[in-house]
TrEMBL record:
Coiled coil: none annotated. It comes from Muricoccus nepalensis. Pfam families: FAD_binding_3. Residues 59-68 have a biased composition (Basic residues). It comes from the Bacteria. InterPro entries: FAD-bd, FAD/NAD-bd_sf, Geranylgeranyl_reductase. One of its GO terms (molecular function) is FAD binding. Residues 1-80 are annotated as: Disordered. Residues 106-236 form the FAD-binding domain. This is FAD-binding domain-containing protein.
Amino acid sequence: MRAVHAPPRRRRAGALPPLDEGAGAARLVHQRPAPPPDPLGNRLGGGAAAADGPDGRARQHRLHRPRLLPRGLGGAGRARGRAGRAALGLPLPLDRLGRGRRVSGTVVIGGGPAGAAAAILLARAGARVTVVEREAAAREKVCGEFLGPDAAALMASLGLPLPSLGAVPVSRGALAAGSRDAAWALPFAAWSLPRAVMDEALLDAAARAGATVLRGRGAAGAAREGEGWSVRLAGGARLAARSVVLATGKHELRGHARSATRGQIGLKLPLRLAGPMEGTVLLLPFAGGYAGLQPRGGEGAGREANLCAALRAVGSEARDPAALLGRVASGSALAARLLRDAEPLLARPLAVGGVPYGFRHRDGAGAPCGLYRAGDQFAVVPSLAGDGVAMALAGGMAAARAILEGVPSAAFHRALDAELGRPMRWAGAIARLLEAAPGALTLAAGVFPAGARLAAARTRLPSRPRPVAGGREGGAGPVRILARR
Ligand SMILES: Cc1cc2nc3c(=O)[nH]c(=O)nc-3n(C[C@H](O)[C@H](O)[C@H](O)COP(=O)(O)OP(=O)(O)OC[C@H]3O[C@@H](n4cnc5c(N)ncnc54)[C@H](O)[C@@H]3O)c2cc1C
């Protein structure tokens, strides 16, 4: 059995660990250091990105490169790179490191919001953590990119306030069906930010906090071994760990697939519109699905918008931007008007299949101990809520706290389920109403905008994260992980 890291250095009780874990920490690969800041402290852009096709394979698209972190951040990563303890972004031979050391630390599988947030907290607390992210570089993901106040607060608590990453504000909601439309002021501040930018900033923060980030290495499996876990990487290397955070999002890990049976298709198509969208997120139902349209943050701020759709079945929409635009436009006069002169920014939409909206993980009898699920691997909220990222961040952070406090994974899962229940129930109910009676819902939102505001608020996480209560691996009983406001 191989362990990856050197044993933890002893710290004075209560003392905060140094952010980079100092000179003694063994590492496989450090996340590439933050690139040098430009003279204005801004970030760069323009590069390759990808998302999955309906067949689950990655597609490459030229879109936004992740923006770099603001001036002054990332120095620790550069220093480590110069010191030669890790090649920049190049994996070191796994089998030459940490051989024979004791099992400790956590392997986080998946470097999306859930996995990266877990890694940041674990590393900042001085724990050993390795993130395994199968993509070698940042990429676009099928996501509406709407971020509510809960996501914004969680990102800020991680030291990544959304405006500093180039997010643009969204202050109004709107719904259109047939010839009707309605708009209302959102009851909270919300934002739009490309996923490639956000995910890269999170992974960068994890590396700067001292996590080992393996890029371009997928996990092929994870199994109990002795007291802990053995995570098998594509190519055959193994990582040994005390606990595992399963954060592979929409993708199943062999042997740990979600129990969800049905799934929808998610499509994403960035667009250039005839004019700028005025800080509004639009919900556009059509037969067999719905789409969200909102201004695009990051480099696309201005006339660019992000169209993201959830459909029960697709034909040419998954390949042909015009077909997707036509399908969305068929649902309302407003959509037809807005999309008539829209210019797709991709040759074909990004797509992901089998999205199990409404899925909530429940541990069955004999569920493995020490495997903490977070993000879409724990629960999948209907996209119209625009709260999946907040739930992923909160779940990842809560998983980290649970691991640090020794809370058993089963107790963690029960507590997280309780916290995510409200947005899941509200989003599910709204999704059903939208499908059954889009016109009536639009009429109701127009006559009673306070109801639309209430519904928007109820699809948010009801609580802010706080440190977990104590507990031991193998113990029992529900543990409150997130405090009510
Ligand atoms: C159509 C649609 C629209 C949406 N719109 C919004 C929205 O507007 N706002 C919002 O908040 N949420 C939205 N969501 C939901 C949101 O995208 C997800 O809830 C969120 O991305 C979940 O984060 P995650 O970290 O769990 O997973 P992901 O973001 O999917 O990240 C998982 C990571 O794991 C990696 N990975 C996968 N398998 C492996 C492996 N075997 N080994 C190593 N790495 C692996 C992947 O490369 C990926 O980087 C939308 C979803 C859909 C489908």
